[in-house]
Amino acid sequence: MSLKHSYTLISPFYDAALTAATRAQRARSLAGLPSTPARVLLSGVGTGLDLPLLPRQHSYTGIDLTHAMLRRAMPRAARLDFSCVQGDAQCLPFADRSFDHVILHLILAVLPNPFACLKETARVLVPGGSVLIFDKFLQAGQWAPLRRLVNPVVRRVATRLDVVFEELLDKTPQLVMESDQPALAAGWFRLIRLKRV
User: Fold this and answer.
1) What one-character DSSP code corresponds to residue 120?
2) What is the model's pLDDT at position 151?
3) For position 72, what pLDDT does the model report?
4) How far apart are CA 143 and CA 52, in angstroms?
5) Taking the chain, what is the end-to-end CA distance rounded to the nearest angstrom?
6) What is the pTM of this model?
7) How far does Cα 83 stand from its chain's mean position?
8) CA dihedral sign, ordered 4, 71, 190, 132
9) What is the pairing mode between strands 39-43 and 59-64?
């Protein structure tokens, strides 16, 4: 089953599963956006759970692989300067240095190639721009046998359980770590802020 097909099927249930569990951590991450107006990309915007939490002064673009997700996101963006694009976060349809900031919430551990997503994120960011990440990652060197055991099945339906963020960052020298904080599930979920050099 393709990722696009999976997320088209689960879009009606996505909100119920994630809204309450992740709202506070999403808000913590989004507090990292600056006060001065900027161009912000929400890569993998999904059903738009971040949109009600965003400050109004910025210009936002949301991209998602499925029309079903974007259709559910649009009503949540009514108070924002927001446009949406159906496309792939692993191959962004935007010019170099198109955005001042990029939000990657619960997307890197979903994609078949999270490195491609991070590389594309760096490409579309201006120097000095930031990346706000909220997602689940294995720690470098962590064994996590149960997660690794079920990963081949779970990744076909919804998400990966084997992504090590440090491995992605090592391959993306244009991005440097500014902060890394535990968020949920004893640090399995993390709030990460990167800077484009």
Assistant:
1) H
2) 40
3) 92
4) 37
5) 38
6) 0.86
7) 17
8) positive
9) parallel
Q: Say whether pLDDT at 86 is over 70.
A: yes
Q: Look at residues 29, 25, 63, 26 and name the one whose alpha carbon lies nearest to residue 131.
A: 29
pLDDT of residue 12: 56
Q: Which residues pair with 63 in a beta bridge?
A: 43, 85
| CA–CA distances in Å: residue 35 to residues 57, 102, 125 | 8, 15, 18
User: Which pLDDT score, from 0 to 100, does residue 29 have?
Assistant: 97
Range 57-75 average pLDDT: 95
Q: How many helices (H) and strands (E) does the chain have?
A: 5, 7
Cβ(39)–Cβ(61) under 8 Å? Answer: yes
CA-based torsion, 35, 36, 37, 42: positive or negative: negative
Could you tell me the CA-to-CA distances from 7 to 10, 44, 50, 105, 113 in Å, in that order? 5, 11, 17, 15, 16
